[in-house]
Every structure is written in structure tokens, then in C-alpha cells.
Amino acid sequence: MLFLGGAILRASITDLYLRYVKQGLRPFLIAAGTLLVIAAIVALLQELRHLNRPEAKPDDDGHGHGRSGPGVGWLLLAPALTLLFVVPPALGADTVSRAGSALADNRDVAYPPLPPGDPADLALLDYGYRAVYDHGRTLQDRRIQLTGFIAPEPDGQPMLARIVLSCCAADGVPIKIGLRGQVPQAPANTWVRATGRWIPHTVKDPVNDADVPYFEVSTWEKISAPAEPYE
Description:
Protein name: TIGR03943 family protein
Number of strands: 6
Helix content: 25-40%
Radius of gyration: 25 Å
Shape: elongated
InterPro entries: DUF1980, DUF1980_C
Oligomer: single chain
Keywords: Membrane, Transmembrane, Transmembrane helix
Structural class: alpha/beta
Strand content: 15-25%
């Protein structure tokens, strides 16, 4: 429990927890890790007090019963050591190829104007909703900047993608944006920042038949993977 709670706290204090859950869950992870550490310390203190009793033997609970716990409890070390020493990669192109696009539910709402600035910096999911369900009305005549990783389309052409979380990585689904123009020539899972414009073109995702909007790239650059890889 001590190692597991400590591993959760380490992941929560650093950016490692962002590989598993959304940013808003950090306070809950810190609280859970703290409770585990406190519970472990209390249990250790009780065990030490018992061992220091003159009439108690190391394998006796004072009533003639053994205190040996089940060996399976040591399996708690497995996730603790994993959190401490193994940094898993974020979900990427492989998830994109196997899962359907996040644009599967109709968002028939009024979309506000784009934020000021040139280019307007948009999340991929925001761009997708505006392109598909608002038919690009708020995207016209604006330069737009999108950030994501490269994933191959079924025909092998690059597209821009990012994983969207509802809660944690287990429920992650991809948002997929097709590319035209100066398409980035980079390996899968390469993070890029692309600038360009909306174009009125969509295709159907072969996985779940959702709409996949397109983006006309004018310029792009490779970037390092962000600390928070998910939307």
C-alpha cells in the first residue's frame, strides 16, 4: 500500500498521470494516493507495536493465531513498480486505425465565433464539430492552426489525429482530420503543428461511418509531444 500510494502521488505530482487520465482528475489522484500512504503507515505502526509486545511472538497475534497475511498481497507491488519505473506511451496511431472517429454524435448547437488571433488555434475536436455539424460557417475566411499526431488513413495517406478522453485512457477515442495541400511527410505518431484553412470536404470513417472533415494545410512543423497528449 505504501509503494502503491507513493507511486500514485509521484505520477500525480508530475505530468505522468496525464498518460492515464484527464487533467481535472489530478486532485482525486492526490487524495487517493495520500489516503493509501496514511493507511499503510498506520498499518505498519500497528504491526511494530505488536512485535514490540514482550508476550507476542512475530507470528502470533496475541490470541494464539498466526498473523501471516496472504502472499497475494505482494502483487500490489506490480502496479506500484510499473508506475514508478515504466512510462507508457500515449495512445496513438494504432488506436486511430482500430477505433472510429469521435464525431459520431450530432452536435446541433450554435457555435460561437472563432477566438481572435491569426491563425486561430483550435482543438481538433472543436474543428471537427464546426466543420461537420456547423458546415464550416465559423471557419470560413480564417487561418486555423491545429496540433496533433500523424496517423495513416486506410489508403496510407497521412491524416491528423488526437485521442479524446471522457475520463481515462481506457475510454479514449480518436478525432481524425483528413489533410490536403502541403500534407506533412512524417512517420506515424509524429507530432506536428499545421496551419491552413477549412475546406468543404468530408469522407466516412470505415470503422464507424462517422464523418471525417478535411483541412487544407499551407504550412506545418514538427513539434515535441505535449505534456498533455489527449483532448
